[in-house]
Amino acid sequence: MSANESPVGQAPTQPTAAYESAFMKACRREPVPHTPVWFMRQAGRSLPEYRKVREGIPMLESCVRPELVTEITLQPVRRHNVDAAVYYSDIVVPLKAIGIDLDIKPGVGPVVEKPIRTRADLAQLRDLTPEDVSYVTEAIGLLTRELGATPLIGFAGAPFTLASYLVEGGPSRTYENAKSMMYGDPELWADLLDRLAEITAAFLKVQIEAGASAVQLFDSWAGALAPVDYRRSALPASAKVLQAVAGYGVPRIHFGVGTGELLGLMGEAGADVVGVDWRVPLDEAARRVGPGKALQGNLDPTVLFASKEAVEAKTREVLDSAVGLEGHVFNLGHGVMPSTDPEALTRLVEYVHTQTAR
Known about the structure:
Elements: H1 16-19, H2 22-27, H3 48-54, H4 59-62, H5 66-80, E1 85-86, H6 93-97, E2 102-105, E3 109-112, H7 134-147, E4 152-157, H8 159-168, H9 176-184, H10 186-210, E5 214-219, H11 227-233, H12 235-244, E6 252-256, H13 263-268, E7 273-275, H14 282-289, E8 294-296, H15 308-321, E9 328-329, H16 342-356
Parallel strand pairs: 1-4, 4-5, 5-6, 6-7, 7-8, 8-9
Antiparallel strand pairs: 2-3
Helix pairs in contact: 5-7, 7-10, 8-9, 8-10, 9-10, 10-12, 15-16
């Protein structure tokens, strides 16, 4: 099925308590009892209980064990009292599921054995089926039963970011191979991103149909693009993904790093909520995105290494800049850093809840 077609299945009916939660209300730009909080990369890294259950288990293997995924996803909900859980996975999981030879190397990140550099290489990218990721369906079924009134956020990597990994063969600071293809062979680049949009849409549909209450599209490396290049060479594929899941009626969040100059364009891609990193104040971000969208963000993750008083002061700045927004989900401006003190996150959630109680 093409990602442009309407969904064959329908999202499960959300439990009333989850549907009416502060997080879901904020995404829908409705009045909330308090500003909801969740953290990107809250499931893992900084938590000692995560490191304990992951001990000796490679990253990608941990993503295909439903019971382990369930436990890791629940850990920050129990510890921090966040307003939403985020499904424990990785953006390269669907690529691994269709047979791409890749691994996540500690201290490096995703490494692709045979980078995509030619049209013939596109043959590596077959369609993703629900059977390829049956462990996702099983894990989300377990999670929704455990979470009850707490919404579960599913996620996927945006086509541009996935393409960057596939073409470069791993993380990059310059994206020289990806940009060389983008500028030098725009037809091949467009076909690559279109295939990735199909795979990404299919992966999100599996999560939604299994019970995810919302989804987030991560375009981690989109900030490497100038606005004109983003509009021409990345936005169409992201818009295709977001449109493919629009019929389910679940909130769609779109987030990128270093995307201050792209916020308006990211809003055009079709998400209900636009994530903002820490570089742009939320009131200015709202001006750039335009009306009709909720915003998510955007405390600098490094602030959590400062004193309690400093964290509260910087958090207050974020909350003040969010006054008057149509909808606001509090988050960091990027993921939780591995060496973050978990207690700082717990205190931050409590502070936001207390300061914004209505």
